[in-house]
Amino acid sequence: MNVFDLDNWQEIFSTLKNNKVRTFFTAFGVFWGIFMLVLMLGSGNGLKNAAYDGWGDFATNSFFMWTQRTSMPYKGFRRGRNFNFNNKDTEALRNKIPEIKTLAPRLQAGGYRGSSNVVRGKETGAFNIYGDYPEFMDIDPVEMIGGRFVNQKDIDDMRKVAVIGNAVVDALFKEGEEPVGDYIKIQGVYFNIVGVFKSKKKGGEADKDANSIFLPFTAMQKTFNYGDAVFWYAITSRDNIPASITEEKVIDLMKLRHKIHPEDDQAIGHFNVEKEFNKMEGLFMGIDGLIWVVGIGTLLAGIIGVSNIMLIVIKERTNEIGVKRALGATPSNIISQVILESVFLTTLAGYFGLVIGVVLLGVIDNAMQNSGGDSQFFLHPEIDFGIGITALVILIFSGIFAGLIPAKRALSIKPVDALRDE
User: Fold this and answer.
1) What is the pLDDT of residue 316?
2) Could you give the CA distance from residue 389 to residue 354 in angstroms, rounded to a whole number?
3) Which pLDDT tens digit goes with each residue over 393-403?
4) CB-side neighbour CA atoms (13 Å) of 283
5) Rounded to whole angstroms, how far apart are CA atoms 238 and 250?
């Protein structure tokens, strides 16, 4: 049968027009199925986008490592021993672990979650003080809104310079004052401000970053008498090498260097960002899978409804089919006619469901953007072009599926029996 035959389409439109109520409720099942699938997929992407946005540009193939008390005696050293990483450890990591892509030693005034008072003129505040290398920007980058970050020249010359967060600016400077080029005093020592930044992350982590100050690692070591101590390391693995493999090699090397029992899992604390990121990705893959199962199930219910209605239509048009068969219509003509009607109905209903679902997601996204709110849990609900194409393909095959059983039923009708049917 010719799909572009005007007579065939007139027949289809006439059938749909003469059964408006039945056509509406039949099409509504397919419309609702694809509409809910689009809406759920978009909502799932909204949750995913918010979660990923909260990470900022954080390197997901990274891990962190710090020292803790030993939990096992080893080579004459007692259990419960304290130790620190040091500058020689940094060199050993650079030279002996080729899997490391980025290595960023860190110091923090007051230790983990510690803070220090910072003074500028009559203003004072307690902020997070870090000693860093320029490489840290490759692991947890921030957005520079003025000046620059710590550079290698600062490290080499042990310059007393500082890069401060936007919340530090708000606390120590009046509106309109330029912080870059000014000075702040940390534990009685003056540091020249060379840059201002704001976090790329969201929520509590963004607030933490905003209240932070970065100093050159070497200057902080020397100025505040930290000797050659390194409080913790931020490390990324080379491309195509899992962070867990690099992490294991790094920990083994540090245990060897500091005479820690190979089975002592308490002495070196570590946090693998890649593992947590993979867990999150697995969670969203599960959510997407559940959405597709529910959405396809809802769509299937609508398709079954179309198939059932088409069976009724075939029953009502028994005489018409008999006449066509008597006049020489081939089985393929009958089958293609029924399937074309089914595909047209499901595709039309599904298309409207797809379009209205996408439009509604756009309206929700626009309303959220215009509200001025900063949602940490829902961001840019949307479906991509590939999902839309997939949905349309599903609709076409659904229409074919919905028409197969009615088509076989129509084909089974013998011309003589059809003409006798009342």
Assistant:
1) 59
2) 10
3) 777 777 777 66
4) 12
5) 13
Q: β-strand 183-186 against 116-120: which pairing, if any?
A: antiparallel
Q: Which tokens is 399 given? A: 């229409």
Q: Answer for the pair 45, 285: CB distance below 8 angstroms, yes or no.
A: no
- Round to whole Å and give the CA distance between 341 and 27: 12
121 contacts 185 by C-beta, under 8 angstroms: no
Report whether 344 contacts 8 (CB < 8 A): no
**Closest C-alpha to 65, from 80, 85, 81:** 85
Compute the distance between CA of residue 215 and CA of residue 195 in angstroms, rounded to an integer. 11
**For residue 240, which phi and psi values (nearest 5 degrees)?**
70, 10
Query: Which helix H or strand E contains 136, and what residues bound it?
Result: helix 136-139
d(CA 124, CA 188): 12
d(CA 366, CA 38): 17
pTM score, whole prediction:
0.70
Q: How far apart are CA 271 and CA 66, in angstroms?
A: 9
Q: Residue 8 carries which side chain, given as an amino acid letter?
A: N
Alpha-carbon Rg for the chain in angstroms: 34
Give the H/E segment covering residue 253. helix 243-257
Task: For residues 357 and 392, give the distance between their C-alpha atoms in angstroms, rounded to a whole number.
Answer: 13
Residues 6 or more apart from 366 whose CB is under 8 A from it? none
Phi, psi angle pair for 196, to nearest 5°: -130, 140
Q: Which residues contact 408 (CB under 8 A, 6 or more apart)?
A: 335
pLDDT digits (tens, 9 = 90+) for 280-304: 888 888 888 888 888 778 777 777 7
Smallest Cα–Cα separation from 235: which of 116, 133, 354? 133
Instruction: Give me the torsion for CA of 213, 217, 221, 227, rounded to 10°.
Output: 140
Where residue 232 falls among pLDDT bands split at 50, 70, 90? very high
Beta-bridge partner residues of 236: 62, 102
- What would the two tokens of residue 243 be? 């962070």
Average pLDDT, the chain: 83
For residue 56, what is the DSSP state? Answer: T
CA gap 57, 200 in Å, rounded: 7
Q: 136: Cβ–Cβ under 8 A, 6 or more apart, which residues?
A: 104, 106, 214, 234
Look up residue 91 and give its amino acid: E
Q: What is the DSSP string of 174-200?
A: -TT---TT-EEEETTEEEEEEEEEE-S
**Residues 302 and 31 sit within 8 Å (Cβ to Cβ):** yes
